[in-house]
Design goal:
There is one protein chain. With about 160 residues, the chain is α+β, with helices and mostly antiparallel strands. Helices cover about 30% and strands about 15% of the residues. It has 3 helices and 6 strands; from the N terminus they run H-H-E-E-E-H-E-E-E. Bound molecules: zinc ion. The site of zinc ion has 6 residues, from strand 3.
Length: about 160
Amino acid sequence: MIPQSKYFLPKELIQPSLFEQMSEGALMRCIGHDVCNHLDMLREDYEGAVRLSGKHKSKSDIQIYINGKYWGKEYKHSGLRSIDCPEGVKDSVHKQGRAFDLKCKHLDILTSLIFHNHYRYHITRIEHPDCTPTWRHVEFSTYAISMTIFKPKRNSKQE
Ligand SMILES: [Zn+2]
């Protein structure tokens, strides 16, 4: 069975140019069932937390965005990237399909969820929020271990 997410379409998880090189199914297998499930859990918990906070006014309040056009900008490299993708660092975990740059309206709520429940989502690394002012770069593992907060050795470009 091809891995799929309940909330994120393949085009939201995968760099657009990769669809010219591989089938959608093969690309989704690079990401895998575990990562899809954990992204979905985080998305559901985020929605729940936003609703509890009373900040739910419209659909965009409960969405997490990865690739696509949002708020006047088009994102293409926020999920699985090609091996030769010039964006970010050479050994980026995005190229393994385990790193995602998450955008949302209530970044404070999302950040709090990640820091309190990282074991639940198998998030094992997060880029320091000081380095990612408008998104959260998170990396998933196949099992739950402690979460490392890292600062990349570069300027403020997305990893
Ligand atoms: Zn990233």
